[in-house]
Amino acid sequence: MALLIWTNEFRVGVDSLDADHIVIFSLINHIDEAHLSGTDERAIGRILKVLIDRAVAHFQREEMLMKRHGFPDLEAHAGEHRKIIEDLQILYEAYVNAPSAAISGEIVKVLSAWLEEHVLETDMCYRPYIPGEDT
Ligand SMILES: [Fe+2]
Ligand SMILES: [Fe+2]
Question: pLDDT exceeding 70 applies to what percent of the chain?
Answer without folding.
Answer: 96
